[in-house]
Amino acid sequence: MQVIIFDNAQQVAENAAEWVAELINKKSNPVIGLATGSTPISLYHELVNKYKAGELSFSNTTSFNLDEYLGINEINQQSYRHFMNENLFNHVDINKLKTFLPTCNQGENPREQGLDYEDKIAQAGGIDLQILGIGANGHIGFNEPTSSLASRTRIKTLTQQTLNDNSRLFAADEFQPTLAMTMGIATILDARYVLLMATGKSKAKAVKDMVTGPLSAVCPASSLQLHENAIVLLDKEAASELEDHEYYVWADKQNVKINQEFGLYHNY
Ligand SMILES: O=P(O)(O)OC[C@H]1O[C@](O)(CO)[C@@H](O)[C@@H]1O
Asked: Which option is the CATH number for 2-261: 1.50.40.10, 3.90.650.10, 3.40.50.1360, 3.40.50.740?
């Protein structure tokens, strides 16, 4: 696991955008795994800016999102489809027919729908680069603590902590889903590269558990310790509980070539 610490959240977003741009510019049919939540919004903003500046095109990109709520449809403003349209898809040249979220239609077998999602990922050639955030309880996607490390796309019940953390996004009288369809931990680990972004003090404990804690389903993000190409981009606050800082890379504005040093130029 490569941990890179930046001064602030904006630098995390800018650096993450470079990783994504490299993939998209380098590979003829890139497949990217996308995340929702507050953290990647600034990444998507950077990508839209790069697109508008003519620095990248999403026309050949296929995307798979980590998760989607159950019990609301995709035109609901709280759906992750709506989130992706608003924050990325509507502003770039991606073919929406090649953007996938793990939906679960009522009346159809959830297990089969999970397997279908896995099949779609496989047919696309697998995920080249998976973007991740992290929950304050260490979840990735909606794989809540105690999720099986061998899990694949399926329905998960959200924990009270996650519901509380996300309640800020829902009006008092609005329906807040308690179930979601999510890629499993094993699905995430199948990606060739994983890029996890974490910013803010509220993530510091989860980051510590992920990076230095035992490999444990209690902190699903600790599973990334098993991944050969996991990159963790942090701001100082999210890194504030990491000890032995000499093990990590500190980036600063002068060190803009950090990606080259740490092998951004990969063979996708
Ligand atoms: O970035 P936030 O809003 O703190 O969310 C943390 C995580 O929880 C989720 O919203 C649940 O999947 C993730 O998308 C996100 O990475």
From this structure: 3.40.50.1360
